[in-house]
Amino acid sequence: MIEQHIVTYREEANELLAELETSLLELEENPTDEELIGRVFRAMHTIKGSGAMFGFDEVAQFTHEVETVFDLVRNGKMTVSKLLLNLTLRARDHIKSLLDASVSGEESDRAEGEAVIAGLKQLVPSSPNEPSPPPVQSQPAPDAEAETLKTWRIRFKPCPEIFLSGTKPLGLINELRELGTCHVVAHTAGVPVLNDMNPELCYIYWDIILTTARGMDAIKDVFIFIEDDCELKVDLIDDGGTGDTDLDYKKLGDILVERGDLSPMEIQKILGLQKRFGELAVAVGAITPDKVQSALVEQQHVKNVRQERATQESTSSIRVPAEKLDLLVNLVGELVTVQAHLSQTAALHGNTDFASIAEEVERLTNDLRDTALNIRMLPIGTTFSKFKRLVRDLSQELGKEIEMETEGAETELDKTVIERLNDPLVHLIRNSIDHGIEMPDVRLAAGKPAQGTVHLGAMHSGDSVLITIRDDGAGLDKEAIRAKAVERGIIAATAELSDKEIYNLIFAPGFSTAAKVTNVSGRGVGMDVVKKAIEGLRGSIDITTAQGTGSTITLKIPLTLAIIESLLVRIGPDYFVMPLSSVEECVELTRDNIEEAHGRHLANVRGAIVPYIPLRDQFSISANRPDIEQIVITNIHGTKVGFVVDSVIGEHQTVIKSLGRMYRDVRGISGATILGDGTVALILDMGLLLQSAEALEQGGVSSAAPM
Amino acid sequence: MMEQKACDPKRTADASARTLAIDGALTIERSGEFRQTLRDALAGAQQVVLDVTQVQEIDIPGLQLICSACKTAAAAGKVFTFAGHLPACLLELKDGIGACQNSPCSHNGNSSCIWFGGMK
Amino acid sequence: MAKLIMTADDSASVRQMVSFTLKQNGYDVLEAVDGKDALVKLSSQKVDMLITDLNMPNVDGLGLIRGVRAGALNKFIPIIMLTTESQDGKKSEGKAAGATGWIVKPFKPEQLIAVIKKVLG
């Protein structure tokens, strides 16, 4: 496209050169013909001007020199001489050769050009020896002070005739808006009544409060075309420095004095009246209300700017490698362990001084632990925004129209948790798009908007975060799931299942309801993998659905993986901890109770029958069974189940240590922790314990199976 | 019937009101003509209702004239209101030049301007 | 509705470049080869803006600007003058004649569009 302009330019220049030659020859006959002189000047002017536009810099520069001489001739400061005409004709030939050289790519004869210019310069009478200025680029210089946000007060009072020159103040104001945050107040008090008005004049002026990183020059550039046609006052009213920590800005009276709207004397008089200043100033007739209003806008603007800055400063951050944080959290974990040891030792010694120091250390350690864990917290929003792209791409691929909404992007979770959530979330969202949201025509037929919605939300709930993936698609088809599960041999054809149990079948290994395998939901990887991953985070997954209106999958994820509140229990010589979040209560279990249940593992808790799992049997601990045992009643995915232990020791801050690769596959144990005295306690994975107990029951007596 | 406030937009159905309908471009090119129309209308009626719902384009001179007419009416103890709704182009211009920030009008007993203020 | 802008220039290449840039940015364009041609066209055609060269045969840029401001139909339109002179003299002469603003040649298409946006409001 630019190529095409260049071709046009060359043709045009050649025509102009031909015309120039004719004119020069005619001028030789009539050396005083102004019309001819004008034509010569214009020809060169156009060759120069357009040449510069299309990158013919050498042509433009050379022609400029010749044009300058003819400008003098045109203005009567020089006469046309034979010598001038000779030189100009040579110049014309040189321009032609420069143009031709630009086509052929050959070097032009620079010496000839210099000779012509030197000759022309000698002709110029009392030639002021300054070199002619090269064409100036009208680009505003970049602002030197483009860092801090400063606030300016601009009073822009155009001259009344401003409209007659085609100037549109709105355009200028909008240009200011592009520079930063802007409050504009138009003063219309000067608009007269109809009889006194010339409707083509401007009676309005403006106060503009602008917060921008660009400097004074950028502001003045906006008004460059009318700098002589308006009163422009630009004052710095907030320099963006951190010195002004005071959120309160100047008093209204001070602003009005600074603006020149009121004199200090008037202020004193008004203040003597002891009322609200703005109202008073208007009431005594010292000032029109619009001016007060405008000053109030300034006050508010600067206050907002300072507030924002204060928040920004407090949220300013430093970057730290993640490993350093992990190290810090590990050290804090060690410290928590040592602190527990210290507290225990102090309690043992019974020395009050020692005890109070231990208490102090405990308090500090807890604070330190919370702070350290907090540092690793990140808003989940970064992950959310990645999914927007995913949704967009997938819906295009499938020919569906899907919008993604997010909520609670600012919810914070431990960094490692967020990382490990990524894959499960991708899978769940893929599922919603692939299986959930219908094709647009199907949706329309069902009376739904063609565009489906996938809603991704996060919110805090106690020491967990709830993440929901909700779609307004078809929902789960109970019968289809059941049929598929039977077909896959996951359940027996005769199995009687509740709705919840049927929906939970989609988490069974090797289950897929998609009629055909698409690229989107992948192959082989099913919801079972998602469930495992979530449980690996000590989280849980739950699904609710209504056929025709959509499904919601809720993930409950603990805030952090490093330290948990837990309940410490003992069986024989061994200590175990249970995450406190799932513990509901503890009740006693006596030998009589066991006999009453006729050997079945059921306890009567205030009339409700609660199944329990004797951990002693589960872990084959052979030590003597106490007469009175404890049942820790827990709530696992909505199911009440008890775990029988010898005794409950109490709440415990548990620093989670992994068991290492050797014990990775041990079922029912998710990690270990070190107690104050150095003893190791195992962390129970209650969900898995429940599962294996269920599996055992199903193999034998079926009646006690929970769920 | 006479107890209404100076500029009450709800009282547009008043029988003594004279309605003035303007359409097209309310811009500087027509400002002289528009000024005369407003003057004539205000001279001949106690209440003038301006209908600008069909105005497609307005500029600062157009806005100034409306402001001026309102002041002229206030000075003469007359009522100057508008019919229906204000067109999008007027609302845009009013917000653009910051006329909305400046609602109290000293010509109108420092009350809120029904044209540029209060009518958010 | 696209805004209609007139470009008056005796240089076909500049006219072509301005025209091309304007159309690329969604404006409609009316071309005039010199000041006289422009005045004739503007007497019967309302435009939203005029971009004019200063040095043109027949009626030059200043004459064109004065003519437009003295007319009726396009009296209040923004007028941008193209000038190779970066001296204030030419600018103030143009301003006095009624120009809204100016742009100094050579300019890049982006600069032209920025100025147009500035004065069109």
TrEMBL record, chain A:
The modification Phosphohistidine is found at residue 45. The keyword Membrane does not apply. Residues 128-137 have a biased composition (Pro residues). It comes from the Bacteria. It is an enzyme of class 2 (transferase). InterPro entries: Bact_Chemotaxis_CheA (IPR051315), CheA-like_dim (IPR004105), CheA-like_homodim_sf (IPR037006), CheW-like_dom_sf (IPR036061), CheW-lke_dom (IPR002545), HATPase_C_sf (IPR036890), HATPase_dom (IPR003594), His_kinase_dom (IPR005467). Pfam families: CheW (PF01584), H-kinase_dim (PF02895), HATPase_c (PF02518), Hpt (PF01627). Residues 1-102 form the HPt domain. Residues 563-695 form the CheW-like domain. GO terms for biological process: chemotaxis. Involved in the transmission of sensory signals from the chemoreceptors to the flagellar motors. CheA is autophosphorylated; it can transfer its phosphate group to either CheB or CheY. This is Chemotaxis protein CheA. It comes from Oryzomonas japonica.
UniProtKB/TrEMBL annotation, chain B:
CDD domains: STAS_anti-anti-sigma_factors. PANTHER family: BLR2341 PROTEIN (PTHR35849). InterPro entries: MlaB-like_STAS (IPR058548), MlaB_ABC_Transporter (IPR052746), STAS_dom (IPR002645), STAS_dom_sf (IPR036513). Pfam families: STAS_2. This is STAS domain-containing protein. Gene3D superfamilies: STAS domain. Residues 20-84 form the STAS domain.
UniProtKB/TrEMBL annotation, chain C:
SMART domains: REC. PROSITE patterns: RESPONSE_REGULATORY. The modification 4-aspartylphosphate is found at residue 53. InterPro entries: Bact_response_regulator (IPR050595), CheY-like_superfamily (IPR011006), Sig_transdc_resp-reg_receiver (IPR001789). Residues 4-120 form the Response regulatory domain. Pfam families: Response_reg. CDD domains: REC_CheY4-like. Coiled coil: none annotated. Keywords: Phosphoprotein. Gene3D superfamilies: 3.40.50.2300. GO terms for biological process: phosphorelay signal transduction system. It comes from the Bacteria. This is Response regulator. It comes from Oryzomonas japonica.
